[in-house]
Each structure stands twice: as structure tokens, then as C-alpha cells.
Amino acid sequence: MYSERRKFARQSTSIRVEMTHPSFGTLVGYTRDISDGGAAVQLEVDVLPPVGTQVQVVFHKIGGQINEAPVPMQVRHHNNQLLGLMFLPR
Length: 90
Description:
Blueprint: E1 11-12, E2 16-21, E3 25-34, E4 38-43, E5 54-61, E6 64-65, E7 71-79, E8 82-87
Antiparallel strand pairs: 1-3, 2-3, 2-5, 3-4, 4-8, 5-6, 5-7, 7-8
């Protein structure tokens, strides 16, 4: 029998993401889904940050930023151009 490991329900949505780190600058992508625990982000580049990298993320909607201050997140996994990011405590 299949067991769902996720702690949080995911919501399918497309939100513009700007992910920043001192070693690579800013990468831009879009969420595929988001939850209280993290987000799946499709990037527009081929070079991805390594698993475990802590990044600062700003979410944008058409009318502007969703969050004023960048949110700390960690790269948990990636496959092709899709990243799994986990929210970190501030």
C-alpha cells in the first residue's frame, strides 16, 4: 500500500520566484506547487544549486511582491530544472 510522506497539503499554483545566493546571484523560476512546508520551483536555467544550499526567496504575483523580506529556504532535491525547496525558520 502506498503511503504519502508529505506533512503538508500542496496547492498547485504558478507564482514567479526569485531565488538568490551569493555564489550564483539570482535565479528566476515559477512554482508548480506550494505548501506550508515548501515549494516545487521550475527554473529557467540548466545549472542548479546543490542540494542543501540555503537560498533567499522572493515570491511575486502580477501586482507585485507577495513577501517584502526574502524568505530563507533550502534546496532539498532537484530533477532536471525542477527544485524542491523547504521553508526554513527565520
